[in-house]
Design a protein that fits this description.
Length: 287
Amino acid sequence: MSHTAQIPSHRKPRRSTPRVSLRAGVAGGVLSTIAVAGAAAPANAEPVTETIEMPTLTSGLAGDFARSADATQRVANTLDLQAQQNIAAAKAAKTAKTAKAEAERKAEAERKAEAKRKADEARAKAAAAAERASRTAERTTLSNSSSNSGSSTGSSSATSTVSKATSQATGSAAAVVAFAQAQVGDAYIMGSTGPNAWDCSGLVQAAFSQIGVDLPRVSQDQSVAGTQVSLDNLQPGDILYWGGAGSAYHTAIYIGGGEFVGAQNPSKGVVQASLDYDPPSGAVRVL
C-alpha cells in the first residue's frame, strides 16, 4: 500500500455537467446584458453614480436683466420729464392767457377813460365857446348902452355899485367878497388855483378857504355844496352856478348889488360883472 493511500484527497469533487452548464449559461446571460448596455452607452460616459453639474445660465441673464432694467428706468425718467414739461407748458399758457386778458382789460379801461376825458374836454370847450358867444353878444349890447349914456356916467355908476356891494357884505361873507374882488384882473388858466391865475371853481374854493370853509374842487360839486336859493333872494357870499345843479360848468361868487366876481375865460380872466351880463342858472348858500 502506498504511504499516501490513507491521506484523503484534496481535489474537489467533480461537479455534474448539467449544473456547470446551467451556471455557465446564467453567467453568460449576465455578461451579455452588461455588454449590450456598455455598447449602447458612449465610450467616455461617466458612471451613473457621478453628479453632473448643469452649466450656470444666470450669469449672462443677470447682465441682460440689468440692461433691461436700466433701459426701462431711462424710459420712465423720460416720460416723467415729458409730463413735467407738459404741466409747466400748460401753466405757462394759462398764465400768459390770464396776463393777456388783464392787459386787454386795462387797455379797455384806459381807452374808456381817455374817451371820457376827451368827451369832457369837448363839452368844456363847447360850453366855453357858448359862453364866449354869449359874452360877445352881451358886451356888444353893453357897449352900445355905454356909448349912449356917456363914459363919465358909466364910471360913476360902476364906482357906486362896488361901494354898495361892499357895504352889503358882513362877517364871513365880507371876507369872501373881499378876497374875490382882490383877484379881479388875474389870468384865467384851466386847472389853476392861484395865486395869480385861476379857473372858476379854483377861485371860489380859495375864497371860501379864507374863512375855513372847505368846498369841493369842481363846479359840478360846488353847485350842490350848500342850500339851493332863489336868484331873487341872493345874499353876498352866495355861490352862483351856470348849468344844472350837480352838472354845472361854471361858478362864481355873488358880491351883492346885482354883481358877481368870477374867473370867466382865458380872454377875460377874473372879472366883476353884472348878473344881467351873464345870468346864472341857480345859486347855493354855504354861509
